[in-house]
Specification:
The protein has 631 residues and is of the alpha+beta class. The chain folds into three domains: 45-153, Sandwich (Jelly Rolls); 159-164 and 171-358, GOLD domain (Jelly Rolls), CATH 2.60.120; 403-629, Up-down Bundle (Rhopdopsin 7-helix transmembrane proteins), CATH 1.20.1070. The protein has ten helices and 25 strands. It has a six-stranded mixed β-sheet, with no helix packed on it. Strands 12, 13, 14, 16, 19 and 21 form a six-stranded antiparallel β-sheet that branches. A five-stranded mixed β-sheet has the order 1-3-8-5-6, with no helix packed on it.
């Protein structure tokens, strides 16, 4: 049976940094995994101490399974009594014994059996789970019959500290003043913050008697999505001695594997002296604890690796972070290790093991954003780094942008909007007060949207980012809309009706999808269509091209259209993450320039401040279906 959950992930190579307009066709990638499972039915079960006769052929190995109970300290599998149907080389096994699954983190334990018997052993086997045993024949065309037996030992059963069946909730976070006549309650003193002398330590040792591991119960609280906080029942501080390891258990369910498991171990050296050659060694492991800790032995078992840290007087704090931890029971073993026979003035020291699950590492820091992602039913979190930063917690600055670069990008993107000031002045001078108001709105919100949109620390947000983005997109599209309708020279009543109706429709479409391609092209194409119809009718009525002046075409219309086309091409096709700050700034300047060039001259029937002089039938020509001003 499997010891863990397995996941398949697919990702695309790092993109080239191009900023593509939404709506254009792009390459589509499909990932359709298929999983085939071959289940071995009626797998024989190895019972502890009971021999089982099995047969292994070259093409049909013997597959067995055995259950390892909790607190097992060692496990051995022995093969003996080998015989072959061929009768040759009687007593020689010629078998390969594999203990554990090939899909485990460290691979299976393999033993070649060439004699009469052989055995494979596991120290610190995984607790409360099934282990796979595979025995294969190494000789071609030879079937071997053998006897196999398993034996496990429980060398140490942890003794629980600080919690018993009739404890009340308010006592779980008590202090050393809480005592009881039972030894387990008295032993809860060990889990509290305090100063311990050699005399108090010997008294505690007498209470615990034959205990080989001191196990401290742990409470956990689900704070938020992918956020768990574990707390020892006696408080944050945990006492550690040099005679017995201290064990804390942290169950991690399957829905928590999408976050980051954090361990922060801090040595509390207040009012105690820890020898320079002494340290508190910790081992964080899964499935089974590592109960034998010292400076030479690594933090690992035969099947699984662990994560070891140490704190001492010179290094009082250590941190371990594990992104996407395995959904299993995690064990933290603590022990005071002394290089000499004397541990200084402290035989019991106090440490603070903070174990918690967070969505991201340090909330991705200053240059990152923690995002919750969902793939079908699996929820996980990851950091989205900005300004060139990278890493699990956006702490790798090898490709990071400098502050001067960030400041330059912010200034270019914001100050380039000042190019709309000439457009506003020209609009007011020509009497287009409504259009000037739209340009002012667009300039204001574009400036502060880009000041808030920067990835680094050169950022200023005067209101919520979503509001600034919405107003920037709305002002940009409305600027195109009112400018082209103004060029059409249609009657004021009809023009302002289209202004209002178009703005309402644009506002609705921005709410639905503000980055869509047709939200940009739709209003522009509709306005151009209205302008072309108006110009054609004027040209047919006057029997010559409209506008009639060639200077208007050469010095204003053609340059203005070229500015608009170049700006649209830059905006749509040329922007990348690296050149965004100056290509988009150039887009601002080109759009503002085309507004200055494309706005029509002042109408003769307008007063000084741009208000209409009234409905003068002599200055207007009514045509069926559309009202058009005459020049």
């Amino acid at each position: 049976m499997s010891l863990c959950d397995w996941y398949v992930a697919a990702h695309l190579p790092e993109d080239d940094g191009r900023i593509e307009q939404k709506g254009f066709p792009s390459c589509s990638y499909f990932f359709q995994p298929q999983l085939s499972v071959r289940r071995a039915v009626d797998t024989p079960v190895l019972q502890n101490g009971i021999f089982l006769t099995q047969t292994a052929a070259p093409d049909r190995p013997a597959r067995l399974k055995l259950y390892v109970p909790e607190f097992a300290s060692s496990l051995s599998i022995s093969v003996a009594g080998c015989s072959s149907e061929e009768g040759t080389e009687m007593g020689n096994c010629f078998l390969v014994l594999r203990l554990g699954s090939a899909s485990l983190q460290q691979g299976p334990i393999t033993m070649n059996c060439s004699g009469f018997s052989c055995s494979a052993a596991l120290s610190n086997p995984p607790w409360d789970t099934w282990i796979r045993v595979v025995i294969e024949s190494t000789r071609a065309n030879r079937t071997v019959t053998f006897n196999v037996v398993s034996n496990y030992t429980v060398g140490c059963k942890p003794k629980s500290l600080g919690l018993k069946a009739d404890d009340e909730i308010f006592k779980l976070h008590g202090n050393s003043s809480y005592s009881n006549s039972s030894s387990s309650s008295n032993s809860s003193l060990l889990a509290d913050t305090g100063v311990f002398s050699n005399k108090s330590f010997s008294w505690i040792s007498q209470l615990l008697g034959s205990a080989c591991v001191w196990s401290i119960p742990v409470l956990y609280e689900e704070v938020d999505v992918l956020s768990l906080r574990f707390t020892p029942v006696g408080g944050a501080n945990v006492s550690v001695t040099n005679t017995h390891p201290t064990l804390l258990t942290y169950p991690l369910h399957a829905h928590a594997s999408g976050g980051t498991l954090n361990l922060q171990l801090t040595l509390n050296s207040t009012n105690m002296t820890l020898g320079n050659s002494s340290s508190v060694v910790a081992c964080l492991s899964t499935w089974t604890p590592v109960l034998e800790l010292n400076h030479s032995q690594s933090c690992r078992t035969d099947l699984f690796g662990g994560y070891g840290v140490a704190v001492n007087a010179s290094v009082p704090k250590a941190v371990v972070r594990l992104p996407f931890p395995q959904s299993a029971t995690w064990y933290l073993t603590l022990q005071l290790i002394c290089n000499s026979s004397n541990c200084g003035n402290a035989s019991v020291v106090s440490v603070t093991p903070e174990v918690f699950l967070s969505a991201c590492v340090e909330d991705c820091g200053l240059y990152g954003e923690c995002r919750l992602l969902r793939s079908y039913s699996y929820l996980y979190a990851g950091c989205v780094c900005k300004a060139g930063w990278s890493g699990w917690g956006c702490t790798d600055d090898s490709t990071a942008q400098s502050y001067s670069h960030q400041l330059l990008a912010t200034l270019l993107l914001t100050l380039s909007n000042l190019a709309f000031l000439p457009a506003i002045v020209v609009a007011v001078k020509h009497g287009y007060i409504t259009e000037a108001s739209v340009y002012l709105f667009s300039m204001f919100f574009s400036t502060f949207y880009h000041a808030c949109d920067q990835p680094g620390i050169a950022v200023m947000c005067i209101m919520e980012y979503n509001t600034l983005q919405y107003c920037d997109f709305l002002g940009s599209i409305c600027s195109f809309w009112v400018t082209i309708l103004c060029m059409a020279r249609i009657r004021n009543a009809f023009k302002y009706t289209l202004f209002m109706l178009g703005t309402l429709l644009i506002a609705m479409s921005m709410q639905l999808d503000r980055t869509g391609l047709w939200n940009l092209l739709g209003p522009i194409l509709c306005a151009i269509l209205i302008m072309v119809i108006a110009w054609v009718r004027k040209g047919v009525h006057r029997r010559h091209c409209y506008p009639p002046s060639w200077r208007r075409w050469v010095f204003y219309l053609i340059p203005g259209v070229l500015c608009a086309l170049i700006g649209l091409c830059l905006y749509t096709f040329a922007e990348t993450e690296d050149n965004y700050y100056y290509t988009h700034s150039l887009w601002h300047i080109l759009v503002a320039s085309c507004v200055v060039l494309l706005l029509p001259p002042k109408k003769k029937n307008r007063e000084k401040f741009g208000w209409s002089s009234g409905w003068n039938p002599e200055l207007e020509l009514e045509t069926p279906g559309l009202w058009i001003h005459s020049l």
